[in-house]
Design goal:
The chain has 325 residues and is an alpha/beta fold. The chain has twelve helices and four strands.
C-alpha cells in the first residue's frame, strides 16, 4: 500500500510539476480545519505528510514557494474569522475583506516559506525530513508570535482544542511544545512510508498515553461550582463608528452603568460582566470612573470587565488588552 501511494505521488509530480504547488495550497487549507472552530485535528495526519513529501522532492529554489503556498492556504482558513468585521458596514467595507484577510495570510505564510527553505537546506545534507521539519516549523511559529509585535494566532498546537485530555500537555511543554509534538505526530506516517515502522508505532503509542494522562489529570480536578452566584452580562450594542471616540465616551460609560444598575428580575446579582475593551478610556487610571463604578456596585457586587491598560502613565508605554475586577 505504501509503495502504491508513493508511486502515485511520484507519477503526479513528474507529469505535472505545478501540481506540487496546487497540492501545497490544498494541504494547507485542509490543515486549517484542524483548529477551532472546526476541530478536525485528524486531518493533520494526511496533510502534513503530503506537504513534507512535496517539500522533500522540491529543489531548494522551489522549497520556499512550497512552504509559502502551504502557509497561505492554512492561514486563509485559520484566520477566516477576521473577515467578519467587514460585515459590520458591508456596503462600505466588504470590498476590503479579501485584501485584509488575504494580505495577512500572505504575510504570515512567509514564516512557513522560510521554514520550508531551512528544512530543505538541512535535508539536502542527508538528514531525514521527519527530524528536521517539526522543530524548524515550530521555531518559525514561535518567531511569528514575537517578531514585528507578534501575531501568535493559529499555531498548529491549537489542534489540541478538539483532542480532549491531550491539551493538558500544555501544563508541561506550553503552546510551543504542543506545536512541536502535534507536528511530529502528524508527520509520523512518513516513518511508515520510509520503512521505519517500529519507530512510527512507538511515537503513535505515545499519543494515547499522553491523552490518557490528560484525562486522568482532569479527573483529579473536577469543576467546582460556587453557590449563590448570579451573573449579569451587559452588552450595550455600541455602533462600531462610536466606539473609542472621545465625543461618545461619556454616553457609552453612562449606558454601561445604567444597564448594570437595573433591578434584578430574580435573585440578587452578584457579578456583572462587561465586554472586551468596552470602556472608552483607561478605567484603572480614572479616579472618577472607578468612583462611579464603586457607587453602582455597592458593597455586595463585583464587576469583571475587559479593559485597555498600559504599562506606565506615559505616551510611549505598552498597551494591553486586559481583564479588570
Amino acid at each position: 500500500m505504501n509503495e502504491r501511494l508513493i508511486s502515485a505521488f511520484d507519477w503526479l509530480i513528474a507529469h505535472s510539476p505545478k501540481a506540487k504547488f496546487v497540492l501545497c495550497v490544498i494541504a494547507g487549507a485542509v490543515s486549517g480545519l484542524a483548529l477551532p472552530p472546526f476541530d478536525q485535528w485528524w486531518v493533520f495526519g494526511f496533510t502534513v505528510p503530503l506537504f513534507l513529501m512535496v517539500l522533500e522532492t522540491s529543489s531548494l529554489k522551489r522549497a520556499f514557494w512550497s512552504g509559502w503556498l502551504f502557509g497561505l492556504g492554512y492561514f486563509l482558513v485559520v484566520l477566516h474569522w477576521i473577515g467578519a468585521a467587514f460585515f459590520v458596514n458591508a456596503a462600505a467595507d466588504l470590498w476590503m475583506m479579501p485584501f485584509a484577510v488575504g494580505g495577512l495570510a500572505a504575510f504570515l505564510a512567509l514564516y512557513w516559506g522560510a521554514g520550508a527553505f531551512v528544512t530543505r537546506l538541512i535535508t539536502e545534507r542527508g538528514v531525514s525530513i521527519f527530524w528536521v521539519a517539526p522543530p524548524v516549523f515550530s521555531v518559525m511559529e514561535y518567531l511569528r508570535g514575537i517578531l514585528f509585535s507578534g501575531f501568535p494566532w493559529g499555531v498548529p498546537g491549537l489542534a489540541v482544542d478538539g483532542m480532549g485530555g491531550l491539551a493538558q500537555l500544555a501544563s508541561i511543554v506550553g503552546m510551543n511544545g504542543l506545536t512541536l509534538l502535534i507536528l511530529m505526530w502528524a508527520a509520523t506516517p512518513l516513518l511508515f512510508f520510509k520503512g521505519e515502522k517500529a519507530l512510527g508505532v512507538a511515537l503513535l503509542l505515545l499519543l494515547p498515553l499522553a491523552w490518557g494522562w490528560g484525562a486522568w489529570r482532569l479527573a483529579q480536578n473536577p469543576t467546582r461550582y460556587v453557590e449563590g452566584v448570579q451573573l449579569r452580562i451587559v452588552q450595550p450594542n455600541i455602533p462600531q463608528d462610536d466606539a473609542w471616540r472621545n465625543a461618545h465616551a461619556r454616553a457609552i460609560f453612562d449606558r454601561l452603568l445604567a444597564l448594570s444598575a437595573q433591578p434584578a428580575q430574580g435573585p440578587a446579582i452578584t457579578h456583572i460582566i462587561w465586554p472586551e475593551s468596552i470602556v472608552p478610556f483607561l478605567l484603572d487610571e480614572s479616579p472618577e470612573g472607578l468612583s462611579e463604578v464603586a457607587k453602582m456596585l455597592g458593597s455586595d457586587r463585583v464587576l469583571l470587565t475587559g479593559a485597555v491598560r498600559r504599562s506606565a502613565p506615559r505616551q510611549d508605554a505598552d498597551y494591553f488588552t486586559s481583564v479588570l475586577a
